[in-house]
Every structure is written in structure tokens, then in C-alpha cells.
Design goal:
108 residues, mainly beta, Rieske Iron-sulfur Protein, 3-stranded antiparallel beta sheet, globular, binds FE2/S2 (inorganic) cluster
Length: 108
């Protein structure tokens, strides 16, 4: 399946250390600027669905605002117990002043 490139923000919307929540066709996605590099990941915590983009970003670690689960925004991996869980991540492309993410929609 060919991935879809979707424009989700302007680079100016995300300064280093900031996060932004967006929705793409109903799918909540969080963007984070870590030292000038933008990462995209699911905006739905694996615990009870907390909005990660409303949490705290320190370096590459996001902490969920609801109960404190943490994830590495670069890999989506949970970095405190329960280790092994992960949230989806999406490749990011910067074109000029625009931020695009790559989404593979599933047929199921
Ligand atoms: S919903 Fe994220 S830690 Fe509970």
C-alpha cells in the first residue's frame, strides 16, 4: 500500500520543546519538536487514552497528562513499566515551511 503524505502543520507552529495535537481523518496524532527535529506519534496513550500532546515533553520523553506513563517520541516505546508497549509513530517530512507525515491506512 502506498503511504499517504498529509500536511499537518507549519514548522513555525512547533518551536523546540513544544508539542501540538492534530487530527487526520479522525486519527489523533501528536507532533513534538525535539531540539529542532519534529516527530509524529499517536496522541492516544496506551493506558486509558490520555491526550499525550497535552502532557509534558522533556528532551525526547513525553509524559501522559493523566497518570504519568512515559514514551520515547522517537520510537513510540514506553520507557517505564510497562516496558514493551508502544504507540504508533509516523515518518515526518519537512517541505519548505510545512510539516507532512506519512500514514499507511489499513484496509481492515
Ligand atoms: S491515560 Fe495515560 S497514563 Fe493513564
Amino acid at each position: 500500500m502506498v503511504p499517504e503524505l498529509v500536511r499537518v502543520a507549519a514548522t513555525a507552529d512547533l518551536q523546540p520543546g513544544q508539542m501540538l495535537g492534530v487530527t487526520v481523518d479522525g486519527l489523533p496524532i501528536a507532533l513534538a519538536n525535539v531540539d529542532g527535529v519534529i516527530y509524529a506519534f499517536s496522541d492516544t496513550c496506551r493506558h486509558e487514552g490520555g491526550p499525550l500532546s497535552n502532557g509534558v515533553l522533556i528532551a525526547a520523553t513525553v509524559t501522559c497528562p493523566w497518570h504519568g506513563w512515559t514514551y520515547d517520541v522517537r520510537t513510540g516505546k514506553s520507557i517505564i513499566p510497562p516496558i514493551g508497549l508502544r504507540i504508533d509513530t509516523y515518518p515526518v517530512h519537512i517541505t519548505g515551511a510545512d510539516v507532512y507525515i506519512e500514514i499507511n491506512w489499513s484496509d481492515d
